[in-house]
Amino acid sequence: MDVLNACVGARIAVNEGEEAIDVCLAIQQMNEEAAQEAAQKERISTLFANIKNLMEKMGWSAEQSMDILSVSDNDRRTLLQLLK
Prior knowledge:
The chain is mainly α. Helices cover 73% and strands 0% of the residues. It has four helices and no strands. The chain has helices at 2-8, 23-58, 62-68, 73-83. Helix 2 crosses helix 4. The N and C termini lie far apart (39 Å). The mean pLDDT is 85.
């Protein structure tokens, strides 16, 4: 399983002592993870655009804009990197 995870970038967990894995379940898990990552990227992209708009239109700093939008600390770190 380590080889599959490394080759396709999957993060399929296998319990210790398990000799087989349900391939359909593994594919479903990969699809769910990909959908979550896409949703996360879209959410960050939308927040980024909203912050940029507030900064440009209202003259606010990035921090002020994120405060108004109630951006989480984790997302702030990501967005501050993108705003540099």
